[in-house]
Amino acid sequence: MKYIIFLLKSALEDFSHNKGRTxxxxxxxxxxxxxxxxxxxxxxxxxxxxENQFESLGANLIFVMPGxxxxxxxxxxxxxxxxxxxxxxxxxKRVSNISYLAPVFVKTGAMIEAEGKxxxxxxxxxxxxxxxxxxxxxxxxxxxxxxxxxxxxKIILLHLSMAEKLFISSDLALGNNVVIDKxxxxxxxxxxxxxxxxxxxxxMDAHVYIPFKASYSFNPEKKYYGLYFKADSKENVFIVKDTxxxxxxxxxxxxxxxxxxxxxxxxxVSSIFNIINTVLIAIAAISLVVGGxxxxxxxxxxxxxxxxxxxxxxxxGARKKDILYQFITxxxxxxxxxxxxxLGLAEIIxxxxxxxxxxxxxxxxxxxxxxxxxxxxxxxxVFPAKKAADLSPIDAIRYE
Amino acid sequence: MIHLKNxxxxxxxxxxxxxxxxxxxxxxxxxxxxxxxxxxxxxxxSTLMHVIGLxxxxxxxxxxxxxxxxxxLDDDQISTLRNEFVGFVxxxxxxxxxxxxxxxxxxxxxxxRKKLNYDPKEKAMELINNFGLAGKEKSYPNKxxxxxxxxxxxxxxxxxxxRLILADEPTGNLDTKTGExxxxxxxxxxxxxxxxxxxxxxxxxxxxxxxxKIKIVDGEIV
Lengths: 400, 222
Fold this sequence. Notes:
The complex is a heterodimer of chains A (400) and B (222). Chain A is an alpha+beta fold and 400 residues long. Chain A has helices at 2-17, 19-56, 69-73, 86-93, 130-133, 146-151, 160-167, 170-173, 237-249, 262-305, 307-315, 320-353, 363-389, 393-398; strands at residues 61-66, 98-114, 117-126, 138-141, 155-159, 177-180, 183-191, 207-211, 226-231, 257-261. In chain A, helix 1 crosses helix 12 (320-353), helix 2 runs antiparallel to helix 13 (363-389) and helix 10 packs across helix 12. Chain A is elongated, with a radius of gyration of 33 Å. Chain B has 222 residues and is an alpha/beta fold. Chain B has a single domain (34-57, 74-221), classed as Rossmann fold. Chain B has a 6-stranded mixed sheet, with helices on both faces. In chain B, strands 2-1-4-5 form a 4-stranded antiparallel sheet, covered by helices on one side. The interface between A and B is medium-sized, with 22 and 25 residues.
């Protein structure tokens, strides 16, 4: 212990005699650690951002679709295949831990017309629980309610951006009619924009919502294309999924339908982010190596300057390893100093941009930064230190 | 205590030319001696002292310290002997400039492998006071006189309670008066503490004050 204090003290003493040099040398490590930690922090922030986007689509969302997972991911399954009916809905309703259940019929690529303008939309015909399943929020007007569903009212909900495209402003849209498949639908509510998520689900703002019964003109079979529902908590997603799978297997072949969850989609996206992030970290790490070379350079200079001191210490009983440890302690302290400053600066930058971007520094990046800077101190310090330790005591003490 | 048997120190100057700094040295230093190695510059007296002090290795021959053959020891063990057995005093003082007087005196204790049966700091302060350096413990070497620096160096040589003090021209960088004080100090250590002292000098007047003179010319004892 006393020995470690001695090593640290002698390292710090040397720094205080060469303040400018110490700061410049640790600057290399500072920049390296700063860039690596920032890249990690931004990567973590980006992932969090994407996760939030997914959650805005509805956290704990589970959906049942016709076809197996492969065909669904290829965009098939929407045509043909099995369709679900009221019996399936009632079976799933009995499953516990489901907070919302919305059987849906989806008409993709439908034309919506108003005021002589037309747009391509995805018509989602469902019940009032679709609001909860998709986390829809009202901007103006009102939402579809249970009584609307029962009556099969020809009413429709548009996202704000869609309403503005068709009617210029949302005020003009409310209470007016839009035409889908030659049928008139009255706009009763404007939904807040979800933004163009574009990830897997297409543009969320191009979704329009109508009561299920109002879709009979283009859904003559009166069946459901899919079943969307939500588990009441993250922990229950798996069990709910599993239960629904078993229920449906009693009626259908397991290749004819799939029970999927948001997180499966999210995992794919995360793995892409991980690859990009790793590449960026590797690039940032190059600057760490450059910083390490800077330390090595300065350590060689330090050793040369202190040959006489090394000789004196050897004459007074220092072993080779005492000299070795002394110089390695110095290079590690130098590197750690840079690492700590880099970490501190990264923390400040992250705090400053927090309001714009959810970047954050986690414990493992702190440990990584400190670990890597110590390792650099050792790796790049060991050669100069070895040189110092291997000096012959008598040559060293005579050195002027 | 120290026994040199047929010790040679040779340097390869050129492909063909070998320079012998020490030639077939046979020498015994007994416990409690106060001796001097005297010779003109270039005679090999410093080399002899470095070999005795284990700072340098002989090319040929045997060195026995308390009967132990040094050539059989590894670097760590030799370092330990330098730490515990010998105390060096150099002509150039060889204090570390960035350390205070007290820190300089304590250096050998940092490298001590044996458990010291005294408090190093207390002992250092005692030496500082005995050597007329009181109040200087926090000063740096460049702030005190040459004579004071040499006394610090002697204090540092004594901190580990060595058996042998090796002093290489200890008065060489000092004026006559100060030099005499330093010699008196070494004499006292020898007389009162029974420490073996080996002094290297080119000055016969200094050598005359020692009990035994070992004269060396061209690498040979005469």
